[in-house]
Amino acid sequence: MGHSMGVIRAYEAAAALDPIPVALVIGFDPTRPAYVSPNVETAINFFLEPNVIPVEPLPGFAGVLLNEIVGHEDDIDHGEIIYDEGLRSRAIQEIQSVVR
User: What does the alpha-carbon distance between residue 36 and residue 89 come to, in Å, rounded to a whole number?
Assistant: First the structure.
């Protein structure tokens, strides 16, 4: 899981583990392009408009990739997105679904 530049680092860490499968990567409003490697099973990314930079799959990626706009920077500050209760609850549910 990562926020802002941490999203890019989370995907880089997942790619460094290849060929070991990574069940889930979650990103909160990445500020630069990020890429999902083939060993990631599910990638979920929450974005604030207007500066949406969708996460892109690398060749061979066959998992689930969700890029979702969840609000606007006028309503949720980029630095505060990780504290949004609704998004945190969704992230926790996703994490619990892969560790059970």
Answer: 23
